[in-house]
Specification:
84% helix; rod-shaped; 2 helices; single chain; 116 residues; mainly alpha
Length: 116
């Protein structure tokens, strides 16, 4: 083999090797790109899912707060009613009046009413 033939063969091997390394590099870049896309998609799904769950929890908490507000209004109305009754009983005691629970009724026949 002459020197020119050896150089030519070396050139061919170098080109084939360089071409293969470029293909490997391109394939590696493609794989990394695919992993990046899949990773970003997974991250998007996770973040979106957490946002949806958080919004659901917020709506559930707001509904519970509304129920508690309504219960508080009912409770405040009952407290106001009890306070009003207490004030009424206190006013009746101040004036010497008797509450309905302490009154006993007498049944008087009609004939006794007309005798007087």
């Amino acid at each position: 083999m002459t020197h020119a033939t050896l150089v030519l063969q070396h050139h061919r091997v170098a080109r084939v090797t360089a071409g293969n390394s470029r293909r490997v590099f391109a394939g590696g870049c493609l794989a990394l790109g695919m992993f990046a896309v899949v990773g970003l998609a997974a991250a998007y799904v996770v973040v979106t899912n957490r946002i949806v769950i958080a919004n659901y929890a917020i709506r559930r908490d707001e509904a519970k707060m509304q129920e508690l507000r309504e219960e508080l209004k009912v409770f405040e109305a009952e407290v106001a009613k009890v306070k009003a009754l207490d004030q009424l009983e206190a006013a009746a005691r101040e004036r010497g009046l008797v509450t309905a629970e302490r009154v006993s009724y007498l049944v008087v026949p009609q004939s006794q009413l007309t005798q007087r």
